């Protein structure tokens, strides 16, 4: 998990208050940005296209690594007015009077060179109800955010952004440890004791020339059973996962421009810069130098 977060380098790109009063509803089209919502007070109903409505109440947290089309309203079944993501405060329903629903919503930004790969390893959504998180550190972070939202102290935006970044990390931790239903991906693998041992071995020594048989031995499984379970839970074969992770590390180093090709090749297990360049070009379709210049 630390490896994923280090490569994603998440930051709160936009955060804004969302308030509403009376009967209201809005509909958003899908957009390729990680979205989040924290319910500060009141409740609302969230509906993803083709799914049953989900009730969100005070203290709930929802993270969408990639935001699908959805409707949000004061009650289920409302046909929402078309809406688009905005960076400023939003008011729904009756424009005057004290709001009966208040939330903090917005989006995170991730390091772009590896975002598609890393986000594919996460679940489609992470929903932490207030009833589950209230007595935990996650719940205390939610309370602090709500308290900060209600103030107008100097540095408020900076504090909110840093709290949101901490909350994102807590949410990813929470999902890996406590979620009852996590789809195929790295978080599912981390919850499987046998696969977790193999994943830990890969991440601890990405330079090693791992074979499926060696990883199966680490997992305490037969080669065939390990390969089948890894593919089902992680969504790709073990050696493909290793190759993807190596290239993710390489792309990050190239984008930062902090290491030579020889050093990158050594760090991720290639015998030479030439061998690394050949593998990189075959997988990414361009030479490492060209990728570095474009990313820079």
TrEMBL record:
Entry keyword set: DNA-binding, Transcription, Transcription regulation
GO molecular function, one term: sequence-specific DNA binding
Lineage, highest ranks first: Bacteria, Pseudomonadati, Pseudomonadota, Alphaproteobacteria, Sphingomonadales
Domain called HTH araC/xylS-type: residue spans: 196-294
Coiled coil: none
Species of the source: Sphingomonas leidyi
PANTHER family documented for this protein: ARAC FAMILY TRANSCRIPTIONAL REGULATOR, HTH-TYPE TRANSCRIPTIONAL ACTIVATOR RHAS-RELATED
Signal peptide: none
Entry protein name: AraC-like DNA-binding protein
PROSITE patterns: HTH_ARAC_FAMILY_1, HTH_ARAC_FAMILY_2
Superkingdom: Bacteria
